[in-house]
Amino acid sequence: MMLNEATMTTRGEDVSDYIIGCFQDIRLQKIGALLFKNICTKMTTCIKYLAGSRALQVGFSRFLYNKKTSVKEIERSFAEKTNNNCINRNHVLCIQDTVEVGYPKQHIKKDEFGPTTYGDIKGFFAHPGLIVDAENYDVLGLSSVDPWVRADEKVGPLEQRSIEEKESYYWLETAKKASDNMSNAKLITAVGDRGSDIYELFDRIPNERTHLLVRACYDRKLSNGKFVSAHMSEVLVAGEYKFELGNISGKRKPFNAPRRDDLKVRQARIATMAVKYSEIEITKLQSKLKPKGNPSVKLTCVEVREISDVPSGEEEIFWRLFTTHKINSFDDAKQIIEWYQARWTIEQIFRTMKKKGLQIEDSQVENVDVLLKLFTLSIASAVTTMMLVNARDGSTNRQATDVFNKNEILVLSLILKKVEGKTIKQKNPHIINSLSWASWIIARLGGWNGYACESPSGPMTMYRGLEKFHNYFGGWGLATYSTGNDQ
To answer: Structure pTM?
Structure first.
């Protein structure tokens, strides 16, 4: 049965905007919505802090441990909301990546958690799909979230396993879910890093409505006998452009584990990039398994290489991108590169969700099924933060109601009087009640100084601003309740 989502209240709170699934039980639906609301407003995954009382702590725990409240149903609910945000969208990107979550500080049940790449630390992995508008880069929501626990035992050499038996199959599955779940989008492009350079992805996923954009990991053999690198070395440069590179601090990843990119350092600089593109036809690798699919696939290869002076000790920027999009000009190639750069959005979401923000890796919960649910809710909450980050420059046409309810917008208008300065440069420049207008206010609460000439507010500024805003909103709610002046 379908439960009514129009007006949902529990414990005196309206949770209509926070429904995370049906669960075939109105009580579970309400308590789950309240749990998600508290994660979004209190900016944490600590159950005790989210509840605030023993009774509600028990209620949240019962929800999380209930077999009916599956990750699959929560995923379906988020995908449905995202699909609604895709109405009238011509083209969206499904940015996908794998994140691992480890727990080094607590004694966890080793039979439930699996190995990670952080040495002896146990944990799990997840592979979400993030939907972003391809024209203005609005963050629209999640198309899917696939968490899993890696098995302890070895299951045989990779070359002797089918793609369905490998973890890399999540790249195919996420792209397929985006194509199926985002039915309101007219066109979809699945974007992935080097981990998604998988022949089966190119062979099985593309259709008239679904495209791929992948950073190459392998120097693949072409149908003409050459390799991609040799072929592209003969292709003329189509054009050059300037690109602003951000700095990389070189700090180690969590837990001080040795990782491939740990020690890379890069200074911020303006780089000159040379661009090439060419149609290619890659061939299927030889395998001991019975061959499946087409023996070759036609793609377009885009190469972008830094040709300006690179500071001593740093590496030049070089990306080789494979795409199913047709490229007819230098501007088309630049668009492909820009779409790939949008992949940074999901990295920022992971950062918000982990050590710097919601701190999912500090959770004291030991049950893996419960943690997978909390992870799914925390990444959805982090997506809200990125919606505000992407709206900060006024490029979006979205309304504040996409993120905030009417009472929250009222409180935002009250806070505006506090955070605006006296000069024109410190006034909110955006249309009232737009998402950009709300983003400006949240950024000011998070510590941004309000000057357009300064660095724009990032995820952590928005995170701090949201946390502070919800404290204000909670105080406003108490004052409103105590005076009986219900807005």
So the answer is: 0.88
